[in-house]
Specification:
With about 550 residues, this protein is of the alpha+beta class. It has helices at about 5, 15-60, 65-100, 110-130, 130-140, 145, 155-190, 215-230, 280-285, 310-315, 385-395, 410-415, 415-450, 455-460, 465-500, 510-535, 540-545; strands spanning about 200-205, 235-240, 250-255, 255, 270-275, 290, 305-310, 325-330, 335-345, 360, 370-380, 405. Helix 2 packs parallel to helix 13 and helix 7 packs across helix 15. The two termini are about 60 Å apart.
C-alpha cells in the first residue's frame, strides 16, 4: 500500500488510494480518541484521591509550587515510560501488520509520528496529572474535611462526567463497528461473487517466446506447447490467451457488425472489449458455450477467421437474432471475422466489473503472436503441476521461464487486494475499539462500585437482595451504552456515506450491519459490567458500614 505522500508520486495512485487512506486515517483517529479518553478517565480516578491528599498537604503548609513541580515530574516520568513502551510496541505491531497484509512499503514509525505521539502524551499527562492540584487549590484546605475515602468521587458532577466520557466512547465504537461491518460484508460479497467460470483447479502462467521472430514460428511454438501440456498426467485441458482473466487488462475499441455500426451502439460506436484466445479456451476456463462452439485446433490461418462473443454483446448489438454467422470487424471483408459461438457472461478483468460486450479472436489466426498466458485445467492441485509444466517448457526452450504462475482463484483475488486489506484493517480497528471501550467501562464501573461501598452496604442492610444490586450496576451500564448508541448512530451514518464508493453488494444504511454493531456494543457493556456487579453484590454490609 502507498502512503498519501508516496501516492502523489505516481499518476492515478492518489485517486486510487487517497480516499480509502483518508477513511482509514479517520478510523485510526477515532481509536486514538477512545484510547485517550481511557487514559483521561484513569488519571481522573487517580486524581480523585490525590485531591484530598494535596488539600491535606496544603493545610499543613506545603507550597503550591513544590506540589506543582512534583506533579509535573510525575507526569513527565509517566510520559517517558509510556512513550518508550508504546514506541517499542509500535515497531513490533507495524512489522507484523506489514507481513500479514503483504504491504511492501515500510510502515515503521518515523520522526513525525514520534514527535506527534510524544507531544500528545506529554499534553495528556500534564493536563490530567496537574488536575488534582487545581481542585485542591480551588477548594482550599476545607476539601479534606468535606470528603472521605468512601465519598470521594461520588459527586454528581464527577459521575455525570464519567458517564459522558463512556457514552462518547461507545458512540465512537458504534461508528467503527458499523464501518468495519460494512467493509467486511463488502469483502464477503466480493469473495462470494459468481465468476461465471470454474476458478478452482485452474493454473495460469505467462510465456514470452522471444526466439520466435515470425508469426509461423510463434504459432508453431504455441501449438506444440499446448499439445505437450494436454498430454501431461493430471491435466484435463490447456489453452492460451493474450490477457489472463483477472489481470485487469483487455483491448477496448469500436467494432462494426456486418460492416456497419450496430443500431444499439452507444454514442454511435460499437464499443467492445476484445481479447485473443487459442483452441478449447472456454472449455479450459469452464465457461459455458450457450450457442455455437468453442475455438478448435482446426481454426488455423488458412481457415475462415472466426470470433466468439458473450451474451451481452449478442443482446446489445444483435437483439432478437441468431448471432451465429454474423460478421464483426472492419468494413472490408478481409478484416471481418465470422461469429461461431456465444459464451455465457463471466468476470474477466476484475471481480467488481459489470457485464460488457466482449469479443474474442482466435490466437492461431493472428498475423503476429508474442507473449501469451497459458491456462491449464487440472484434476488436482494446480500448483502441484508446476514442476511438470516447467519440464515441458524447458524441453522446448531451456531458457524460457514461467511468468507469474498462480491459480485462477489467486489471480482474481489480486483484483480485490485493496478492499481485502481495508476490510481487515477496519475489522481490527473495530475490535480494538470494542476492547478499549470494554476496558474503560470496566474500569469506570469498578471505580464507582468501590466508591459506593457504603451506599451498597446500606442498601443491603435495609434488605436489598444481591440480584437487585447486580441489576442496579448492569442497568446503569446499559443505560450509558444506550445513550452512546443513540449519539453514535448519526456519526456512523456519516461514515457509512463516506464509505459508499468502497462498498460492493451492500448499502450504506444496511440494517443488519447496524443491528450487529448495536448488539456488539450491548454485549461489551454487559460483559464489562458483570465483574463489578458481582463484586458489588458480594459487599459485606457490616464491613461496608465500618469502613467509614
Amino acid at each position: 500500500m502507498l502512503s498519501l505522500r508516496e501516492a502523489k508520486n505516481f499518476p492515478g495512485a492518489e485517486q486510487q488510494f487517497g480516499e480509502p487512506l483518508h477513511i482509514m486515517m479517520g478510523m485510526v483517529a477515532l481509536v486514538l480518541l477512545i484510547a485517550l479518553s481511557n487514559v483521561a478517565m484513569l488519571l481522573m480516578a487517580r486524581n480523585t484521591a490525590r485531591a484530598r491528599e494535596f488539600s491535606l498537604r496544603i493545610s499543613v503548609g506545603a507550597g503550591r509550587e513544590r506540589l506543582f513541580r512534583q506533579l509535573l515530574t510525575e507526569g513527565l516520568l509517566l510520559t517517558v515510560a509510556g512513550g518508550l513502551l508504546a514506541w517499542s510496541l509500535a515497531f513490533a505491531a507495524t512489522h507484523v501488520l506489514a507481513a500479514w497484509s503483504q504491504i511492501e512499503t515500510s510502515l515503521a514509525p518515523d520522526k513525525t509520528v514520534l514527535l506527534f505521539t510524544g507531544a500528545l502524551l506529554t499534553l495528556t499527562a500534564i493536563v490530567f496529572g496537574v488536575a488534582p492540584l487545581r481542585t485542591a487549590t480551588a477548594s482550599g484546605p476545607g476539601l479534606v474535611l468535606k470528603t472521605s475515602n468512601a465519598t470521594a468521587g461520588t459527586g454528581k458532577g464527577a459521575v455525570r462526567f464519567g458517564r459522558m466520557i463512556i457514552a462518547a466512547q461507545i458512540a465512537l465504537c458504534v461508528t467503527l463497528l458499523v464501518g468495519a461491518g460494512l467493509l467486511v460484508r463488502t469483502l464477503r460479497n466480493l469473495e462470494d461473487t459468481p465468476l461465471g467460470l470454474e476458478a478452482d483447479n485452474l493454473l495460469l502462467f505467462g510465456i514470452n517466446p522471444e526466439q520466435a521472430h515470425s508469426a509461423a514460428e510463434s504459432i508453431a511454438f504455441y501449438q506444440e506447447l499446448l499439445r505437450r501440456l494436454r498430454t501431461l498426467p493430471g491435466v484435463a485441458d490447456a489453452s492460451a490467451v493474450r490477457f489472463r482473466p483477472g489481470s485487469g487488462w483487455s483491448n477496448n475499441f469500436a467494432l462494426l457488425v456486418d460492416g456497419k455500426v450496430p443500431p444499439n451502439a452507444i454514442d454511435g460506436r460499437g464499443e467492445i472489449r476484445n481479447n485473443v484466445a487459442a483452441s478449447n479456451f472456454f472449455h479450459t476456463l469452464g465457461v459455458p458455450v450457450v450457442a455455437g462452439r468453442d475455438f478448435s485446433d482446426a481454426d488455423l490461418g488458412s481457415a475462415p477467421k472466426v470470433a466468439i462473443i458473450n451474451e451481452t454483446f449478442a443482446k446489445r448489438y444483435l437483439p432478437g437474432e441468431d448471432p451465429i454467422g454474423h460478421r464483426v470487424g472492419g468494413k472490408d471483408a478481409q478484416n471481418q471475422l465470422t461469429i461461431v459461438g456465444v459464451v455465457k457472461d463471466h468476470k474477466y478483468t476484475t471481480i467488481q466489473e459489470q457485464p460488457v460486450p466482449m469479443e474474442w479472436d482466435d490466437a492461431l489466426q493472428r498475423d503476429t503472436l508474442g507473449a501469451m498466458n497459458i491456462a491449464l485445467r487440472t484434476y488436482g492441485d494446480p500448483l502441484a503441476m508446476l514442476p511438470a509444466v516447467r519440464k515441458v517448457v524447458q524441453q522446448i526452450d531451456p531458457n524460457l521461464p514461467l511468468e507469474q504462475p498462480m491459480t485462477q482463484r489467486a489471480q482474481f483475488e489480486t483484483t480485490i487486494a485493496g478492499p481485502m486489506l481495508f476490510a481487515r484493517l477496519a475489522g481490527c480497528f473495530g475490535l480494538l475499539a470494542a476492547l478499549l471501550v470494554a476496558t474503560g467501562l470496566y474500569g469506570t464501573l469498578a471505580f464507582r462500585v468501590a466508591n459506593r461501598t457504603v451506599e451498597i452496604g446500606v442498601r443491603m442492610a435495609l434488605g436489598a437482595r444481591r440480584e437487585e444490586i447486580v441489576k442496579m450496576v448492569v442497568q446503569d451500564s446499559l443505560l450509558v451504552a444506550a445513550a452512546g448508541v443513540a449519539a453514535g448512530l448519526p456519526i456512523a451514518a456519516l461514515l457509512a456515506h463516506a464509505l459508499a464508493s468502497e462498498l460492493y453488494g451492500v448499502k450504506p444504511w444496511d440494517g443488519m450491519t447496524y443491528a450487529a454493531a448495536i448488539a456488539g456494543v450491548a454485549l461489551v457493556a454487559l460483559a464489562a459490567s458483570l465483574v463489578p456487579a458481582q463484586r458489588a453484590a458480594g459487599v459485606d454490609p457490616m464491613h461496608a458500614l465500618r469502613s467509614e
